[in-house]
Amino acid sequence: MSKETVEYHWERHHKGHVDSLNAIVQGTEFAEMKLENMVLTSYNEGNPLPFFVHASQVWNHDFFWENMKPGGGGNPSGMLSEMIERDFGSLDELAKQIQNAALTQFGSGWVWLAYKAHRLGVGNDINPRPSGKDKRLVVVKTPNAVSPLVWDYYPLLAIDVWEHAYHMDYENRRGDYVSVFLDKLISWDVVSCRLENAMVRASKREQMENRKLLWEQLKEQTPIGKKVVDSRPTPKARQKMKRRR
Ligand SMILES: [Fe+2]
């Protein structure tokens, strides 16, 4: 990735979204929110408003820059490597799926490696309980400013496949840009760290949801306000019984 591309992308495109977001956030309900919550709250169920576009593009670009480094590439290690083997078969197969997602993303968008813990599938179908297809790595593509955050996935790697990310260096050869990104720029250390954090967060959340579910079930079995019938004899009745004996 050339210096010119980085300068244009960072200083003009990314900064443009930061400036626009700062200009419209003042005095709104979003002003005190963390960026991630701004994205989730403003998604508007797939009908995003300009606020979402700026917030999500800032989040996506921050995430993208952080998963690059000079002299990157190479092979992942540890748990990430094991999960890539388990869920894709090999690192080459993962690279193929990333390439395929990049080349089939019509128009502008993003390609992601994400940890799908549970809950939502693409298209907002609700799957609130873990299933055999959950707790695994997935490759997904998103249009425009959307990220897998809005599907309740944990993003691990972002590749910007908007034309401004590669056209100066590779013209319309998006696949060449993605190959160079994977071979020379990707920071597997950052992806590993994100995976560990995602698994911890997902596990804590699952525990909380299980506790909540258990509490709901207990409440259904013993509704609050329902009198518990005490079938034991009263003290008077016990005295009468004694006298009879
Ligand atoms: Fe971009």
CATH class: Alpha Beta
| Helix content class | 40-55%
What small-molecule ligands were found? fe (ii) ion
- Describe the largest sheet: 3 strands, antiparallel
CA gyration radius, whole angstroms:
26 Å
In total, how many domains does the architecture comprise? Answer: 1
CATH homologous superfamily assignment: Iron/manganese superoxide dismutase, C-terminal domain
- Please give the alpha-carbon distance between the first and last residues: 98 Å
Q: What do the pLDDT scores average to?
A: 87
Which strand order does the major sheet show?
4-1-5
- Overall number of strands: 5
Q: Estimate the global geometry from the Cα principal axes.
A: elongated
CATH architecture: 3-Layer(bab) Sandwich
**CATH topology type:** minor pseudopilin epsh fold
The assigned structural class equals mainly alpha
Order of helices and strands: HHHHHEEEEEHHHH
Secondary structure tally, helices:
9
**Proportion in β-strands:** 5-15%
GO molecular function: metal ion binding; superoxide dismutase activity
EC number: 1.15.1.1
InterPro entries: Mn/Fe_SOD, Mn/Fe_SOD_C, Mn/Fe_SOD_N, Mn/Fe_SOD_N_sf, SOD_C_sf
Function: Destroys radicals which are normally produced within the cells and which are toxic to biological systems.
